[in-house]
Amino acid sequence: MRRAQKEGNWMATAPRGYSNVQKNGEKYIEPNGDSELIRWAFQQLATGLFTIEDVRRQLLKKGFKITKSPFNKLVKNPAYMGKIKIAAWNDEPEILADGKHQPIVSEELFLSVQDILEGRKHTARPKQRKDENFPLRGFLECPQCGNPLTASFSKGRSAKYGYYHCQQGCGERQKYEEVNDAFTNYLGNFTVEDEVLELYYLILQDVFNKDKKDKDKEVTHIKGLIDSLNKKLDLLLDKLLEDQITQQDYERGKKRFEDELYRLESQKQELEMEHNDFMVMVQYSFGMLKDLGSYYEKSEMEVRHKILGSIFPEKLIYENGNYRTAEINSVVPLICSNINSFGQVKEKRIANINNPSCKVAYRGIEPLLQDRKS
Questions:
Q1: Exposed, middle or buried, 183 (CB in 10 Å: 0-12/13-18/19+)?
Q2: Does pLDDT of 354 surpass 50?
Q3: Taking the CB of residue 209, how many other CB atoms lie within 10 A of it?
């Protein structure tokens, strides 16, 4: 087999974008209908503007079904530039042989993509048009007319002044520093007692451990089905190579098996992702809840928006120095005993988190749980 590979013959199931073909007694692989989309994927990656996952998701929209792991392998497979990778064996090193098959992408394009994926080539990401001065733009509702507030700077005689304001003519306008600072202080009111966090952590840990056992069994079962389908694909190829079935029968069977493989791989990947570092994320999140206002203030715009979107499904209203909302995430009132279902603080308390007198040392979630175990 190694000799045949060194001569440029593909000796296995054709990679995605190619089909195993037999004509006039000769067996080889040739590009199929998927080849154009694969070429397009390499071209997108070569721009440096998109991640592998960005391109994979775009392919899904175009009807090219593939999960994360297989796609990561696909874009690194030298077969697409007309090469055959021959693994090291005994004293022979790993080599790349020139294949007889037609390349789908040029060697220059393939190597350019590898440089980007391995960080050897600078990639330019599109600039995001988000003004850090207005993190609440799009999340505020006008207290007068109920329309969304926008935000911008207006030029005065000697300086620029920023405001959150309404565009519907009602005249609502608030200084952006005041609105931003008030919101940070507002989040400082979202307090969670250590005992509550510990209880929720232990409950989640117990649910996680029970659920993980069931999911692990399911993943093992799916892996067995995947192995079985891969063996069937190999047998199907053997039958083609031995002239036991026609090319048409092979393509039909291959498509059926690959569709089922895609479904199983997607299901397995989803199950595995559900539990990857789950408890680590829970512990991190609980630590964040101990000082949500400070965490929000120090975060990038994207993280701030995620915090806003996860806590406030409806827009916020800022009026007379206070915040309220029509609806708040139902979990918040359960773990923050001083916040009601409208996001209002139940009891009067000092909310200025920048005031040193308000900063009381507290135990983080990790020491708290360690104490529990001892």
A1: buried
A2: no
A3: 10
The mean pLDDT value for 166-170 works out to 88
Distance between start and end Cα atoms, the chain: 60
Write the DSSP string, 279-318.
Answer: HHHHHHHHHHHTTHHHHHHHS-HHHHHHHHHHH-SS-EEE
DSSP 3-state of 235: helix
Select from 186, 179, 189, 166 the least CA-distant residue to 134. Answer: 179
pLDDT of residue 362 exceeding 50, the answer is no
Least confident range of 121-130, 163-172, 191-200, 306-315: 121-130
Rounded Cα distance, 190 and 212, in Å: 31
Give the largest Cα separation in the chain, rounded.
87
Tokens of 112: 């350019």
Residues 6+ apart with CB under 8 A from 122: 48
Distances (CA, A) of 328 to 138, 297, 309, 311, 314: 16, 20, 10, 6, 7
Average pLDDT (214-243) is 88
Q: CA-to-CA distance for 218 and 272, rounded, in angstroms? A: 10
